[in-house]
Design brief:
Length: 329
């Protein structure tokens, strides 16, 4: 048995041992993360673009983290149901949210939300940005954005554009175009991309600002004509297409995006671990395919980048929604 002959030194050692024991459990929890299944809540039904991207992310993050990462689809109320479920979850890194364009526009569409878009979430990473395609019927005389503007000005309210879902990127991209180009287009709402595209093919409407996933195959087959992309820069997936901005509407940009969030008060070290995992995931072959199929531009920057990007998007669309008098359905 070892006996300490100096009471002061003994006391110091005892205090240090106590402090170490007090700290170790918390350190062990964080060092072992994840110890159980991580859920990424997708506030949309299975099968859509957000779901596809989330599942690819979950698969790649599981490889990196050495644990299970699953998707839980919680659609409803314009993404509010799924988003609220994460806002009220424990901030332990085991429940995450796949945030999208809807998170930035909902505070302007709804008078009251059951969560605060800033206070109740901790940013993990902006995963990727996307864009929409401006498409017309191939038989249409409209071949460029300049043609679209000229025709709309010559025949006010005679041109129509299809939308699907109040406040979606397909809807607000069109509203932003109308505002910035100074033209009038009649809005024709649909319940989804498919019926809107069907009517465009049948020449019942004139143009759609639609997602890449919903239109790319039809463009490639010559069944639709793409005349521009809505992003700020040209897309590597459609290098021949100009942006709306360079084709006649300076400053125009309308993007969809995907970002990973955790509940507020999630420990910084867990946020950092998740952020690094996302950065690794977007370099995978799965995401290289998505960059073409979904028109994604990979980002995977630090959490502060997502916070900044979100604030900019929220401000941009708040003004568009206000000017257009758009209300949630």
């Amino acid at each position: 048995m070892t006996v300490c002959g100096n009471k002061a030194i003994c006391s110091l050692f005892a205090f240090a041992a106590f402090a170490l024991c007090w700290m170790l459990p918390d350190q062990r929890v964080h060092a072992a993360y994840p110890e159980r299944v991580i859920r990424i809540v997708v506030p949309f039904a299975p099968g859509g673009g957000t779901d596809v991207i989330a599942r690819a992310l979950a698969q790649e993050m599981a490889k990196d983290l050495g644990g299970s990462v699953i998707i839980e689809n919680k659609p409803g109320a314009g993404t509010i149901i799924g988003t609220q479920s994460v806002a009220t979850s424990e901030g332990d890194g085991y429940t995450l949210l796949m945030g999208t364009f809807a998170n930035a526009v909902n505070p302007s569409l709804y008078a009251k939300l059951p969560y605060d878009a800033h206070r109740d979430f901790a940013a993990v990473s902006l995963i990727a940005r996307s864009f929409n395609l401006v498409v017309v019927n191939p038989a249409s005389p409209i071949k460029t954005i300049a043609d679209l503007i000229a025709t709309a000005r010559a025949e006010p309210d005679k041109l129509s554009y299809g939308t699907y879902g109040t406040g979606t990127s397909a809807h607000l991209a069109g509203e932003l175009f109308k505002h910035m180009a100074g033209v009038k287009l009649t809005t024709v709402p649909y319940k989804g991309a498919a019926p809107a595209i069907t009517d465009l093919l049948g020449r019942q409407i004139h143009v759609i600002f639609t997602t890449v996933a919903s239109a790319a195959s039809l463009v490639e087959a010559g069944q639709l004509r793409a005349i521009a992309v809505t992003s700020a820069e040209r897309s590597a997936a459609f290098p021949q297409l100009p942006t709306v901005a360079e084709a006649g509407v300076p400053g125009y940009a309308a993007e969809a995006w995907y970002g990973l969030y955790a509940p507020a008060k999630t420990p910084p070290e867990i946020i950092e671990r998740l952020n690094k995992s996302v950065a690794k995931a977007v370099q995978s072959d799965a995401f290289k395919k998505l960059s073409v199929n979904e028109g994604l531009v990979m980002v995977a920057g630090p959490p502060a980048q997502l916070d900044s990007y979100f604030s900019g998007e929220e401000a941009r669309w708040r003004q568009v929604i206000k000017d257009a008098g758009i209300k949630a359905e």
